[in-house]
Amino acid sequence: MGLQRMDNVSIVVEDLDAAIAFFTELGMELEGTAEIEGRWADRTVGLDGVRSVIAMMRTPDGHGRLELTKFHTPAVIGATPLDPPPNTLGLHRVMFAVDDIDDTIARLRPHGAELLGEVARYEDSYRLCNLRGPAGIIVALAEQIG
User: How many Å apart are CA 98 and CA 23, to the nearest integer?
Assistant: First the structure.
């Protein structure tokens, strides 16, 4: 049997409510939250004593999902550097297509979004930018113009 789909991307956050507010303002919908603990969670994650809360966020088209995770135990371990630059190895960016990039940036700023660089134009096709979002993750935005 082959790959069926990508189900979700997980982001570990310290402030779950703030992360939910950020991604809700972006336009995602909260599917629900759940407390996660027990032997099955320990075995799945590969840690002992897992106790966490997750919030599942869904894109409006229903195809993309983010799992926001707040660990109560074991304690979270901070990455170094805290806000890694875009050329850092590993997964740290997620991109969303938006209708109006300027409006989206303005709506996300009160939720802690910080523009990295500036909004740039790629040929006659897109306006693009990177923002620093919850837990230091880079949230890229793309507005199709062509």
Answer: 13
Q: Answer whether residue 1 shows pLDDT above 70.
A: no
Whether 37 and 45 have beta carbons less than 8 Å apart is answered as no
Burial-class residue 85 by CB neighbours within 10 Å (0-12, 13-18, 19+).
exposed
Mean pLDDT computed over every residue of the chain: 92
Cα gap 1→54, rounded to integer Å: 29
Q: Convert the pLDDT of each residue in 83-122 to its tens digit.
A: 788 788 777 789 999 999 999 999 999 999 999 999 999 9
Instruction: Kindly report the pTM of this predicted structure.
Output: 0.91
**Hey, is 113 helix, strand or coil?**
coil
Check residue 4 and give its pLDDT.
Answer: 79
Residue type, 55: A
Nearest in space to 55 (alpha carbons), one of 78, 27, 35, 77: 35
Classify residue 70 as exposed, middle or buried by CB count within 10 Å of its CB (0-12, 13-18, 19+). buried
User: What residues pair up with 110 in beta bridges, in sequence order?
Assistant: none
Ramachandran class of 117: left when φ > 0, alpha when ψ lies in -120 to 50, beta otherwise = left
